[in-house]
Specification:
The chain has about 325 residues and is α/β, with parallel strands linked by helices. The protein folds into two domains: about 1-220, Type I PLP-dependent aspartate aminotransferase-like (Major domain) (Aspartate Aminotransferase, domain 2); about 225-325, Aspartate Aminotransferase, domain 1 (Alpha-Beta Complex), CATH 3.90.1150.10. It has helices spanning about 1-10, 20-30, 50-60, 80-85, 110-115, 135-140, 205-220, 225-240, 270-280, 290-295, 315-325, and strands at about 15-20, 40, 65, 90-95, 120-125, 145, 160-165, 180-185, 190, 245-250, 260-265, 285, 300-305. The strands form three sheets. It has a seven-stranded mixed beta sheet with strand order 1-7-6-5-4-2-3, with helices on both faces. A four-stranded antiparallel beta sheet has the order 10-11-13-12. Strand 5, helix 6 (about 135-140) and strand 6 (about 145) form a beta-alpha-beta unit. Helix 1 (about 1-10) packs across helix 7 (about 205-220) and helix 8 (about 225-240) packs parallel to helix 11. The longest helix is centred in the last third of the chain and has 20 residues, at about 225-240. It is globular, with a radius of gyration of 20 Å.
Length: about 325
Amino acid sequence: PVSVGRLLNAAPDLLAFCDSATRAWTQFVTALPWQPGDRVLICGNEYASNAIPLLQLARLSGVVVEVVPTGSDGDPDLAALAAMLDERVRLVSLVHVATNSGHVTRVTEVVALAHAVGALVLLDACQSVGQLALDVEALGVDALSATGRKWLRGPRGTGFLYVRREALVGLEPAAADMRGATWTGERTYELKPDATRFELWENDVAGRLGLKAAVDHLLALDPAAVEAAVRDRAATLRSGLGALPGVRLHDVGADLGGIVSFTVDGHDPYAVRDALGQVGVTVSVSVRTSTRLDMTARGLDAVVRASPHYFVGPDQLDRAVGAVASLG
């Protein structure tokens, strides 16, 4: 908890450790005291593993899920958001960096609008932690979920949840055991006063030690320096790819992070991935079902996704651009 607390500028007792970011996210969402007719707002870049639990919640509990329109800059339309917010909105779900784009979402403006009507803000930081320097106090969010893998380069099967102290009041996880609560009497129990109420007794000790090692490594490098390097490498790759005929970039907005998404005319994204892999260039494919709202709105079925980290050198970026150029 101390290492992740330093990474996020959070008190250690406000952190819970889980087996994935999805577990962290759902532990928070299912702890809210939902009532039929409560509203939850999601944005255009919402991720499937967040949207599906919310749609389940809507079907089973009468909660209403609504989508905030996206502005031309890729951010939630703040005017539309302000018009949608009222006292029935219990939660605004926000994705910091979408899985299919380099776009970095504005957070503080959304938080201010949501808090004005008493709504909570949950930030999915899966694609931002490890590539961007994060400060939960500056962001002002009520909760943040993240994974140990991806940009942090920690083990699979690790994730964590931050919950603002004031937001803990009245939250009861749907799944609590003897780690998150104490059996105080024959028919009574008492939840832990801090974020450990969201944890479960059984856990992967080796995985969590690996997560600590990954976080400590990032802290030693300096998250701000890593962010600057990641943004620089992504900008270089984006520029190189953008100069190639037949290559279409799909990153939207002025604030772009480390993900570079693109397609190549006449080539299936999976074929591009496989061809680049043959020459030692590692990329992945992001498909419509991962970010259905955004991909559908932009008429995309799949994009190639490159994620150059701080340790990727100029020669490797040149090799990646050359490999794409050779596809013809």
